[in-house]
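@channel sequence for tomorrow's demo:
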Amino acid sequence: MSREMTAAATETETRTGTATLTWPRTGTTVTGTGAGTGTGRHGRRVVAAALLAPALFATAVPVAAAREALGGGVRHQVDLLVERDGVPGALAHVNGRTFTAGTAELGTDRPIVGADAHFRLASDTKAFTAAAVMRLVADGKVRLDSPARRYVPQLAENPVTVRELLKQRSGLPEYSDLIDWSDGPYTDEDCLALALAKGQDFEPGSDWAYSNTNYLVLGLVIDNTSGEDYRGYIERTVLRPLGLRDTYWPAPGEPTLRGPHARDYGHHPADPEGGVVDMTELPGHGFGPSGGLVSTPKDLNAFWEGLFDGRLLPGWAVRQMTDDTTDVGGLDVYPQGSRYGYGVASIPLSCGGEYWGHGGDLPGNSVGGSHATTGRGDVTVSTTTAAASGDRLRHLRGAVDAALCTGRQGVSQ
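structure tokens (generated this afternoon):
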């Protein structure tokens, strides 16, 4: 733990919180316990809604502010997250180099775990799901402009197409806002039924809105066209071809992360006013095709490299994912110049060009991955608590920008 974090801990009232929640679709009961300062963002948003948000890498400010945040490079920005913003631990892994700051466990001097450590991908999972759908398109098993009801009978008369699901243009409402999270378990079909019963937020194709229901439906598309569960299909067609041996789907009833990992901290959704608690153990199996994968910084960078260098899909399929986009600048959390494609979004870089990626947040962690244009490489940045607003976001974003702009602006890492 850094000197600044130790001082903050002694100057702020600390309390212990314990909360228990039964999670839908798994029936798993999770208890979060830990010491917290009582600071940070509050609000009664369930974990599934938070983890499946557009999140970090879809959250940036105009280029001028990004240049200001660039500061002293990647290491400086990572240090700021810990020493100034109170993040327990932070990591940036870029082009084979890893920069870390903070502790892997509060109350200890255990260093943050490196590029082989596991963390929850949250909404970065959407890029893997989109790649799997494009594999089915490339194999002639799915057509982008076919009504999704051809593959998912529950959609009945709904005209939404596969393309509109991928692009977040379906108008399907957010299922996680409709669930009674004290009840369950729920199946994916149950969650979709709740969304369909609410009705469309807008006519398919007429607008854009981020909804995790889109990728829940795409998981069902994979199930019903591949002949196997989407988890197995993504493992076979995405993870294995790229050698992502440390990326996995948690099993039912498996709340603990496998292998080396840091502890995560945040506000428990069952008691959001109860202070910051240990949020490491979560029922990730239930987060599904919108946010269920667990990976490592090294594996996530390898995914972006493999996707964009054409080793995973035909070139035309990758171009489709990034050329057929919607201007989302100023919408939701996206800055001007941002575009959303098929499970990936582009964000401008301060040094010119852009990066393509996704991001995700949980109450206990934030993670994002991206691939820069013009050969500047791939980066993953993660924190062991939510870092999706304020100075935390600014410094996290600064680490991303510094990592991918190094050399172009002469900024040392």
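heads up for whoever presents: Residues 1-51, 55-71, 407-412 have pLDDT under 50 and may be disordered.
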